[in-house]
Design a protein that fits this description.
Helices cover about 30% and strands about 20% of the residues. The protein is globular. The longest helix has 14 residues, at about 115-130. The protein starts with a strand and ends in an 8-residue tail after the last strand. The protein has helices at about 10-15, 65-70, 110-115, 115-130, 145-155, 170-175, 190-205, 215-225, 245-250, 265-275, 295-300, and strands at about 5, 20, 20-25, 35, 55, 60, 80, 100-105, 135-140, 160-165, 180-185, 210, 230-235, 255-260, 285-290, 310. By secondary structure, it is of the alpha/beta class.
Amino acid sequence: MHSVGICGSDVHYWQRGRIGDFVVKKPMVLGHEAAGRVVKVGSEVKHLKEGDRVAVEPGVPREMDEFFKSGNYNLSPTIFFCATPPDDGNLCRYYKHSANFCYKLPDNVTYEEGALIEPLSVGIHACRRAGVTLGSSILICGAGPIGLVCLLVGQAMGASQVVMTDLSPDRLAMGKELGADHCLTVKREDGPEELARRVEGLLGAQPHVTIECTGVESSVQTAIYSTRPGGVVVLVGLGAPMTTVPLLSAAVREVDIRGVFRYRNTWPMAISMLASKKVNVAPLVTHRFPLEQAVQAFETTRQGLGVKVMLKCDKTDQNP
């Protein structure tokens, strides 16, 4: 392994030992945003060889069930997934993975960019689910790493205007830097309907698409109120199991509410986007630590410092 990013879910398992129904019952290796160098391949592997630089897709279906057959393998109940109990992740020196889910990186894509394909994939899948297309206007709730990749992908897919909301002016500053047209700093006491009016004021009309990346109840409410009739709300952020939302507002205005679970069939598109320089994820990496300083790296993420913290696992290669 060369570069492994730390995700909020890694910190969650570290601190709380569970996410929803996924409970850590025995020691587990964290890490699922990864890229590395092939040191050995199985006898049947034809598309990779020793020395190839690869990005690792962390979810590997275990059986050829109906979800696998229909191309929706991310929904397979028995899927293997790095750092989701009881499956070990890839934050380590050496890691074994299905060759079918290792993707060769072009020479002009760095290891760190390869590792960032994982969060970028969440943005690709969210924008696909939302039906983002040329001319779409988008509201993105939350300017953390996932909100920022949704911004990058939305722009690449042709969005005409993007509004981002967050409690943190620092995070919104990064959104502005990456090309958001409007940034709206929200306060905890702001009412969802009032925020929806402010979003409409910034865009001149309600957005076609809202991508909700926080999971916070009030933010989900804002997402529904904000979206124009016939539009789409995509729920990316994971919050409380039971959330109160203005369902009637969505129903009578035919606002579709769609879920997102990880991603599927996104690595080839992500690699093309990075290789063509249509998308630049490099600014997302704000901190780097050697593997030996993993605790410090996790602490940095837990405190919400910077955007993306990257761990460097290959002592022989210190390049990005």
